[in-house]
Amino acid sequence: MKTLAELAQHVGGKIKGNADIEIGAVATLENATAADISFLSNPKYTNALQTTKAGAVIVGKDTDAPAALLIVEDPYYAFLQIVVLLHGHRQHKNVGISPKAGIAKTAKIGTGCIINDFATICDGVVIGDNAVIYPGVFVGDNVKIGNNCILYPNTVIYEGCRLGNNVIIHANTTIGKDGYGFAPHKDKLYKIPQIGGVAIEDDVEIGGNSCIQRGTIEDTIIGTGCKLGDLIDIGHGVKIGPHCLLIGQLAIAGSTTIGHHCVIAAQVGIVGHIKIGNLVKIAAQAGVINDIPDGQNVAGTPAISALNAKRAYSTIEDLPKMKKAIRRLEKKFENE
Amino acid sequence: MKTLAELAQHVGGKIKGNADIEIGAVATLENATAADISFLSNPKYTNALQTTKAGAVIVGKDTDAPAALLIVEDPYYAFLQIVVLLHGHRQHKNVGISPKAGIAKTAKIGTGCIINDFATICDGVVIGDNAVIYPGVFVGDNVKIGNNCILYPNTVIYEGCRLGNNVIIHANTTIGKDGYGFAPHKDKLYKIPQIGGVAIEDDVEIGGNSCIQRGTIEDTIIGTGCKLGDLIDIGHGVKIGPHCLLIGQLAIAGSTTIGHHCVIAAQVGIVGHIKIGNLVKIAAQAGVINDIPDGQNVAGTPAISALNAKRAYSTIEDLPKMKKAIRRLEKKFENE
Amino acid sequence: MKTLAELAQHVGGKIKGNADIEIGAVATLENATAADISFLSNPKYTNALQTTKAGAVIVGKDTDAPAALLIVEDPYYAFLQIVVLLHGHRQHKNVGISPKAGIAKTAKIGTGCIINDFATICDGVVIGDNAVIYPGVFVGDNVKIGNNCILYPNTVIYEGCRLGNNVIIHANTTIGKDGYGFAPHKDKLYKIPQIGGVAIEDDVEIGGNSCIQRGTIEDTIIGTGCKLGDLIDIGHGVKIGPHCLLIGQLAIAGSTTIGHHCVIAAQVGIVGHIKIGNLVKIAAQAGVINDIPDGQNVAGTPAISALNAKRAYSTIEDLPKMKKAIRRLEKKFENE
Description:
By secondary structure, chain A is an alpha/beta fold.
């Protein structure tokens, strides 16, 4: 339990209302009780604010509400700080190094590591301090893993890949499988050995059931601080700059480069061998087939400016009417 | 072997032809033999009915065919009943509780459970009766599992999630990984602890290689009787009503709610924070960005009425001609 | 190290420049050094050829470059041959049959097989010679596997499926999970037992995190030499002919047949019960709802000729202008 005053101090916010109320948990506006704090960052939920039973609500500006207000510059970030304070991040049971894991003698494992049953750590692997390796994880030959990494159950990392510090990889994700590279020759397809690896930089989190291919020649790179969703497909030799948000089910084909601080939404497809600039935003389901300069927002297939796309794609519904109108005009014209 | 008469009695159907023929298996119209029963529910296969060598065919109405007919109201459901009768559901070898599984002492496991090698059952887990846990499955701390559940190999269930009775989860699927929640702050992205769980109600089946995120604050819910396909991505806090069909590779973003008896086809994307009503049908590859009222059929991106979408999207092909026609009309007009 | 002359002989090419230089590795045009060979097959990289520091470059025709040239008919295939020569395919550590694997007594395993820790081989399985089974792999009852197959970590193969020779399956992929088949009856959905299997023919490679459903009645078939990408979803009873390229995240619904030598790009969706001919090319993100004859190239949703689609889809951006133009014309006409 923290008082609202303590929470306000923690996030650097102002209080409107009773600073002494005690808050034990975070809850939604809809289901919060008097001992909960809630938040409003999405304007869609403004109505829910009027009827909330929360003891306090984090908001971006003073407003009327039946709860105490914690007014901050960035409600979503303050919400995060308070969730961390009140609930904390996941704790991992310290089982040490399980004798039921399969660990090669030549593997070097740092201090404070947790390696669970049925994990496999192959020859030449180097793992830093405080790693948490869940059951069923496979870490291939000569993989290098930094400090404070978490590999959730059944993560697979093929040989030679490198993870920085504070990397989190969720369950059933595959890192470093062979790039999709086959050369056709006389009606058959031949496999090209994929001699690059995957380099995942510091502070990256990768979702569940995702797959990142190793490079054909050079490493596939996931830049510092990137956050990848679930069921993502990253091609061979793709290079992603720092601090990008890559949301679920997107696919980026081989050798494409992405700048820093991009936001690429769900189910986007990006062809190979192109260059996406910095601070680019790509809307969900877009199909990107050309380079995109810095700072552009795009949408649609093929992707165009998001503003144009919004108008253009909502006009598709009018196509049958437009076609008829053109025919009518043509007929009238002919008849004159 | 069953006689056609026995099958007819089992499904409540009428026979046209020899009721005494013996049927041992279900087969396709194309490859059936005299000891097989086939079925016609998709009219696409009406031609195949004329040349089938099946001993009998399940149909919805009397018709000419070179086989005995089993005439029922709902041929697809009768087919199901007969497959179950003749072939049965998968049997699971009763290995009991394998000593090579890793089972926490505090886990409570019901009677008749099968837990295979290399499965991990963590602290505080409660599993009902007759569960089948295949190798490589991970069941995290305090997960609750009802009766008669089947977890296929390498399924991963993160801590605190709850499964009802008769739940089936296919291989390499991930339940309860962290919701995709990151708050940007001063050019970096910070992870929001995801304190909700996942609640999967009775009679749900989830396909392979799918991923269901836990809720940020409140549980993600998969309603009673829902059937999910493969490679599905369900966001944090999504709530899906009972008896929905959710087909492969669809994605539903965080906090969206879906009503009951919806059918959402393959590769659909649905944005977060919207409300899909009951009995809604969404066509494959649609992109849904707004609420959908009960009973609507939609298609396209952005999704519109399925009827309009069919005409509109098939008109896209005519766009270049339409553009030229407009130019021609404009020129003629100017020239007058 | 090989001399350029040796490489030229290996691939049957001509040399322009110094045939005696020694080459140790393959590298990109951008980062190659004097001891590296690079290649130019994608014309996008023609500029990089002019500034490369590679000792030699594989090209399709004579050109000016600051490196020796190895001129061949098919640069991509020659590149493949040279990567294989200089770097080789992945080597698998020969751990023999691990005592920590779970192998049924009734399983028959050929000579030279490698079966790692925590792999499960069930009753009645038959595995040919020289198989490599990585940790966490599950091979269900009565699965038949040919010679020289590689199953990467956490691959799951359900009972009764059949793999030919030289089949490679990447990590976290699922073969033979139940087809998505449910019959609605009185507001509930009932599971149809899926009595078909999956037959994967010789020389097939399947990517990571993919899912191939078993057939409802007849086998799902992946033809000889097919190469499948990551996160692919193949429905029940789909039959794919030989030597197809099926790229990541595509989905093919139940009972559809695909001919030979097709190329189906990323994120394509194909409905069930249709027939795709031979040598068909389907562009990324296309939605295919009708049969496609041999040799066609298609794109778009619904898929149309790729040539028409290119023009048509790039015209979507002009829709708002076209709509306005039509209105203007209609007004002018009325005013006359």
